Amino acid sequence: MPDYLHLSELHINIIDKETLNDMKKFIDFFHIRYINFGKIPLCNLNEQHGFKIGNFCFPLCVRCSAIFFSVIIIFVLIKFFDKQFNIKQVLFISMLHVPCIVDGILQSFFGIESNVFRRSTTGILCGISFAVTISYCAEKIYRIFFSENRNSLMIKKR
Ligand SMILES: [Zn+2]
User: 53 C-alpha to center of ligand 1: Å?
Assistant: First the structure.
């Protein structure tokens, strides 16, 4: 048997049918979103969950858009007012993501269809919780690694 034949057989064995199928699914995931950009929301591909500006459908569904915009707005407000939270406040505010999860669970597992109002309000609350938690963690990480007056988390060497 010639050498090249042997090699090609080896390649067929390495990339078997299952792997090829997985690769196809992976590529399809992006391709379906690429061809549907501006037509349906790309996060859940459900036309009813999107909102349109003229003829252009926003790439995120109502819930994701609400989370996205409220995170941006809360970040700006936190920065603008230079607000710092303590851990109790963060834990309390982070509870605001619960309505969003409850709404999602009710919809996916109990068949109780949500509506635009519920999706957007729970999304906004979830975004507030995200923004406050992320800004708190970012602040702590920044203090540990970059700040001159590091707090008690660092062991004093002198
Ligand atoms: Zn979404």
Answer: 17
The pTM score is: 0.71
Pair (16, 84) in one structural domain: no
Which tens digits make up the pLDDT trace of 131-142?
A: 999 999 988 888
Question: Has residue 41 been placed in a domain?
Answer: no
Distance 56 CA to ligand 1 centre (A): 16
Q: State in Å: Cα 100 to ligand 1 middle.
A: 12
Looking at the structure, tell me whether residues 76 and 128 fall in a common domain: yes
Residue 72 CA, ligand 1 centroid: distance in Å:
16
Contacts of residue 155, Cβ cutoff 8 Å, sequence gap at least 6:
none
Q: What distance in angstroms lies between residue 103's CA and the mean position of ligand 1's atoms? A: 13
Question: In the numeric block, which tokens belong to residue 115?
Answer: 């509506």
Q: How many domains does the chain have?
A: 2
Residue 92: which domain range? 47-145
